[in-house]
Amino acid sequence: MIRSITGEMVAIIFKYGGISAAILVGLYAGLLGLLSTSAFQTHVVYLHKIQMTWFKDLDVPESFGFMRNQVTTFFLESSDGEKLHAWHILPVELYRKHEVALLGEPAGVVSDITSRHAFKLLRNDPDARLILHFHGAAGTVGSGYRVPNYHALSAGQPGKIHVLTFDYRGFGRSTGTPSEDGILLDAHAVIDWALNVAGIPPNRILVFAQSMGTAVSAAISNYFALKSPPAVFAGTVLVAPFIDAATLASSYRLVGTIPLLSPLAKFPVLFNYLQRFMRDKWSTKDRIAQYIRTNEANGEMYRMTLIHAEDDYDVPWDHTTTLFWHAVNTTTLVGISYDELEEKKTERKKDLGAAGSVMEWHTEHGIIREEILKSGLHDVIMGNPVITMAVMRIFQALDPSFTC
């Protein structure tokens, strides 16, 4: 009797377990089908419809904790006509010195930023520095840990370091729909504004990026390095970068637990086939390698810092170690294998204990720095002192007198 009941229970479990498995497989197959479409890919890759500003008005930066007119809100225009919503953020000490004049101006979106006092403080100060900020996927200029990030960027010299941040097309209040080609036009528009409207030379501009923004900044920095004459910025800081879109997809887990394409990565033939349907490649490894190679060939001074936390569950930290190798590999005539570089790290890197480790690779023309932190997650890290230090390290390398 007992055996009979047990047998029936096993049969029921297999029956309904099989149905559940079939449903899950069917849903996953449906997801893959959707991912092969351009429109669905756009939403999954960029998450641009997820704003995470909790009903705050992006045209009122004060609602994000800034002082009145510390942020100038305006629109840039890309070469194909998209309107890009941007914030010009004054460092707090500079704001304090000019508070009366700044408070005397009307608040809100401005149609002509060149008429504003804050803009003139940037353009007319030969010691001013400008950080161009490229944020990650999802959200807006005011989302999550981005506001603390802006404070950390200027904290090392709060009287001189301005920040320009913006939303890519389709994000926040910017018009259009995101794509790799389109976002690169947006990045070009921002750099054009910095160079030609604000009049800041490349050696006073630092490019900062996090997550998806690292792919954007690597691409646009490479583009300007390839120009004739080249335009090489003071430095580039990449936080939580990824190798390329396909590699990220093969390891990415939604909220750190739900795999999207990682199960398929175990079947290389199938995964490689699906890569054909990926519209936007975002090959950071190739662009970083070309950027370093170009600067080495041109004799241009460059500085690149890669930062990643070991507890980052969105982008695994080994993406940074791989990118560091791609960058270093281009600086040698015969190349260096990944394992060879790892051996050199055991000899040269600084062990900082609970803070992580640092490895620098020096050439005649540049410095490539890898910082692997023990903690910091994917976003929290952006407001940490390591960001302030990375910025000041680059600016002071070019000008030792640039201090508080």
Q: How does the SSE layout of this entry go?
A:
Layout: H1 2-35, H2 38-46, E1 71-77, E2 83-89, H3 92-97, H4 99-103, H5 117-123, E3 129-134, H6 146-154, E4 161-166, H7 180-197, E5 205-210, H8 212-225, E6 235-239, H9 245-251, E7 253-254, E8 258-259, H10 268-275, H11 284-298, E9 302-309, H12 318-329, H13 338-348, E10 350-351, E11 357-362, E12 366-373, H14 385-398
Q: Can you put this structure into words, describing what you see?
A:
By secondary structure, the protein is an alpha/beta fold. It has a ten-stranded mixed sheet with strand order 1-2-4-3-5-6-9-12-11-10, with helices on both faces. It is globular and about 70 Å long. The protein has two domains: 2-35; 49-398, Rossmann fold, CATH 3.40.50. The model has no long low-confidence stretch (mean pLDDT 90). It is 42% helix and 16% strand. It is built from 14 helices and twelve strands.
Features of the shown structure:
404 residues; alpha/beta; Rossmann fold; 2 domains; 10-stranded mixed sheet; two-stranded antiparallel sheet; 14 helices
